[in-house]
Amino acid sequence: MAVRLPNDAQIADVAERIGLSLSPEDVSSIKGLLGGYVAAYNKVDRMIDPLPVVKYPRTPGVQPPKAENPLNAWYVKSTVPGAPEGKLKGKTVVLKDNVMLAGVPMMNGSSTLEGYIPNVDATLVTRLLDAGATIVGKAHCECFCMSCGSHTSALGPVCNPYDPSRSAGGSSSGSAVLVSKGEVDMAIGGDQGGSIRMPSAFCGTVGMKPTHGLVPYTGVVPIEITVDHAGPITKTVADSALMLEVLAGPDGYDCRQIGVKTAPYTEALGKPVKGMKVALLKEGFGHPQSEAAVDDTVRAAAKRLEALGVIVEEVSIPMHLDGPDIWTPIGLQGLMQTMMLGDGYGTSRQDLYVTSFMDVHRGWRERADELSETLKLAMIFAQFADDEYGKRFYGKAHNLTYALRAAYDAVLADYDALLMPTVPKVATPLPGPDASREEIIARGFDILPNTAPFDISHHPALSVPCGMVDGLPVGMMLVGKLWDESTLYTLGDAFEKSGDWKSF
Ligand SMILES: NC(=O)c1ccccc1
């Protein structure tokens, strides 16, 4: 991609856009001074991009026929056998389709990326394969991961395994469906506002959003660096702990990984819970959109924990209700700057910049009409806020995350975990092909009041199935101290072993 010296018209145009008034003489003298930059860019262009090596051979991705994909959860199937031995030997894993698997297509739910084939493996891909897992393909996700429902992928809605007319939850929709159906043993999900935990709640799977930075996000398409998380979606708590043990730890690229503390998570399984303390979060219940049956099911789950000897007490953290509002400027202006205008990365930090992705993704600008309604709405307000107010709300929201984190930490100083419903409802009906924009937006953002606050506070949060309402799964969410995933696994595992949640 050789770099050319701009012509006079290009220099004048650029200058005008950055508010400079240049005379024709200025333009011609500046043109004469740009040669050094052009030479440097061309020298960089001729250097080899030092990307990490792809370690394991794989078959190219193939879209399965409709008959093999009744819930539309698969994007492509591919087989990547990992190391012959390891903790995940014999386990099959599907990746959310915002995770890069070299040689296999990735579209992140958007037609603007269809046909793109990454040339690197995400760090977590290499870790799974080094641990002996077999990666079996990519699962559909929401358009650029921007939805709580499963209705915004360019290749059609993903259906709930318990009722195909209902949402699977999003944005890691296909990942949760394939685990729920037993088509794969484990899945990778991503979570910026709840996208690992929401589909887990709707599909009856176990979803772990680890502490921010615990799992390297390198090679996964970001939304906004400070809320990006990747983590396990599994059938059981034990599998989640096993998978996290393989995924966790710094990789030397990801700047999200500050002060990372890992632990042998599987050692947290099968431990006694008598005397542990859980805080039932008052503000996690009774949201305007909360269904009483969901709240009741989670309160009943708290009683089951009590029966196991756990001390459960209700606590109030009023600021929890501010969490989604504080999340909004970070999510909106972050996604605009980093994911969209930043060609998927933005600037100002060290990272592994997947340049092949950046080259393709910047083409969204010519095809913006194809993006989902949920993403468009967020982009419109982000651009407006940027133009009108600059970055002040993004900055102030970040400052407020310290206060929010402190509010949770104050309670977590006295308790092992917080407990609340993962989402306030059971799976909602999928908006049909003629659904209004209002309906599409409502289903895109209506179930995140308990999940999004922990994406900005960065605490680990585990969604565990805890009962059924009208034949649909309900998830409870345990939230722990920063870097203390182990305690969540101890509690979640004990709860899971207390009986079959489908009969609760
Ligand atoms: N990726 C996410 O977690 C997300 C969830 C809900 C809305 C927007 C984004």
UniProtKB/TrEMBL annotation:
Q: Keywords of this protein's UniProt record, alphabetized?
A: Hydrolase
Q: Which InterPro entries match?
A: Amidase, Amidase_CS, Amidase_dom, AS_sf
> Does this entry carry the keyword Hydrolase?
yes
Recorded hits in Pfam families, A to Z, give: Amidase
- Record has Signal as a keyword: no
The record's annotation in SUPFAM superfamilies points to: Amidase signature (AS) enzymes (SSF75304)
Q: Give any GO molecular function from the UniProt entry.
A: amidase activity
Q: Where is the signal peptide?
A: none
Give the E.C. number(s).
Answer: 3.5.1.4
Sequence ranges assigned to domain Amidase in this UniProt record: 78-488
PANTHER family noted in UniProt:
AMIDASE, TRANSAMIDASE
State what protein this is by name. Answer: Amidase
Organism, per UniProt?
Answer: Paenirhodobacter hankyongi
